[in-house]
Amino acid sequence: MKKLFTSQDAFEMQAVRSELDALSIPYMVKNEFAGGAIGELPWQDSQQEVWLVDDSWYARASKVIELFIQKSNDKAVSSEDWICAECREQNGAAFDVCWQCGAEK
Question: What region holds the RanBP2-type domain (predicted)?
Answer without folding.
Answer: 78-105
